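Students often ask what a holo structure prediction actually looks like on paper. The answer is less mysterious than it sounds. You provide the chain, you provide the ligand, and the output is a string of discrete structure tokens encoding the 3D arrangement of the protein together with calcium ion.
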Amino acid sequence: MFTKSLKELSLSALCCACASVLLTACGGGGSTGSVDAAATQPTTAASSSGSTSNAAASTATGTSTTVNTADAAASGTTTTTTQAGTVVAVPFGQDASQYKLTFTEEFNNFDTSLWNDRIWYEAGNATKNYAVEDGVLKIWPQRDASGNFFNRTIDTDGKYYQTYGYFEMEAKLPKGKGTWPAFWLFNHIGDRRPEMDIMEAYAGGSGWGYTDGSGVSIPTTYAATVWKGDYEGQQVGFKMITEGTDLSAGFHKYAVKWEPNKQTYYFDGKEVLTVNTAMTDPMYLMLDLWFGSASGTPDNSTPQGKTNSYEVNYVRAWQFK
Ligand SMILES: [Ca+2]
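The corresponding structure tokens follow.
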């Protein structure tokens, strides 16, 4: 509950920030940055490398971890091959020699030992609006048995935490009024709620996207936000990022480099925000598709179903050497 109110408070601050921004029309249909990996991933490689990635997650020993080759092909420069011939993920745009891979989830299966499908303070929803298939986690807008759109959270609360390092996700966003996809590092420690929002998008909000010819809200802007979390509303960083691209049209890389006194946020390897702050708690990973806030209330213009998914090709983390 506390987090909920914190989140709501975060959003009012966000909306204030939003209002102060000149609402430029973003245009749409920009080029897509990377290949749709989902289309190219062989399902056969999936099951075998899935367990390998999970092993890497539970042992933070930095043992080389196999990445499925389709991911490597789709991502291009995000992998390297060791002398032993193992393909290892490297942080996009960074000096790979400075990092040790600690976590990789390629989404070749849904590993319940690593991921929860609801946030701790919610009961969850019986309507299943997520799946792992074609090497991708998909979470989609879907009305439940009561006819309501509902939040879905996939997180590693209680299962995987990391302090500092580099965290990267490759994802394609859903479209539609009310959609609010996000990638956070988060924790709830007593009353404290440290939170690093690497990506949050609000397709239906003014200044966050545009409405296409069919009346569907298209996301062209997202935000990175940092909440130190010692008390409610303790925001220490925020930026709306617009690259002139339809973020629902292709996969992009959203990342943060988290150092002891500094955080640097990246979009497709390009630095978009630096926050000089110290955050020292271990954080868990959170991928979610919520509804409302700056994105408005979802309605009949919001496309439902799997074909309008928040698609996550991978989530990876590294520690500094
Ligand atoms: Ca994948």
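The longest helix spans residues 2-20.
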